[in-house]
Specification:
This protein is α/β, with parallel strands linked by helices and about 280 residues long. It folds into 2 domains: about 10-125 and about 205-285, 3-Layer(aba) Sandwich (Rossmann fold), CATH 3.40.50.1820; about 130-195, no CATH class. The chain contains 9 helices and 9 strands. Strands 1-3-2-4-5-8-9 form a 7-stranded mixed beta sheet, with helices on both faces. α1 packs parallel to α9 and α2 (about 70-80) crosses α3. The longest helix has 20 residues, at about 265-285.
Amino acid sequence: MTTAGIDLHLAADVMGDPHDPAVLMFHGGGQTRHAWGGALQALASRSWYASSFDLPGHGESGWASDGVYDLDLFARSVAAAASDFSSPVLVGASLGGISSLVAIGEGLVPDAAALVLVDVTPTLEQRGVQRITEFMRQGIDGFESLDDVADAIATYLPNRHRPADLSGLRKNVRQRDDGHWVWHWDPRFMDRLDDTPGEPTAGRFNPPLRLQAAARNISVPTLLVRGGSSDVVSAEGAAELKELIPHAEVVDVAGAGHMVAGDRNDRFNDAVIDFLEHTVRHHTT
């Protein structure tokens, strides 16, 4: 998909009937659109027109020619994708959530129908942030085999079942000419993590004051889906979001960490679809 307003091609998967209400999903930093595979199918099966996007520098989307990945680029990319749809719901995890929050809160998506934030708030826990950053850095030099990739993921996500068939990992890594496997994103994305502490999937571009200001401007129905075991978004962070967006709903998904949709996809899908049915669908039918 080529989007208006940015110079980069954005890859997307789309599922469902174009006449149904649109739900657009944006992954976290270091992930790809495939993180939403189960949610995409669940939404389409419930008569939502669902799309999942690779953010700039990730998956099969274009890379920034200057190697600069900042909040403005990602927020404008979200807005550009949204401009192809009528009154879309924006669903964003981590980096995708921050970008969606700014896109709506700063008026870049004036017709948004709702906002779903997945384990991300303006204030984050630095211990969890650091753990994600360390995990992401492991793939910069490359892994010798898919088994090594699987081992790294298993160490970071010990509660996940390690797959016997590793072919699915090819959606998240690519093989270099030297045979090594690297994450499926532009390694220059990490440049923004090295000199400024902050949200691991956004680097220096998560200024709390800007995110708080954007949150105060949110008037559309809003849901925070927090991992019940998340070490990135605390109960205090969720409470702060409620202060900034008083009408926001908060759902804790038991047994899920920061990667909520991947950890407990069934409960995540139920929470999001229930929210959309009683807010967006109820008010548009």
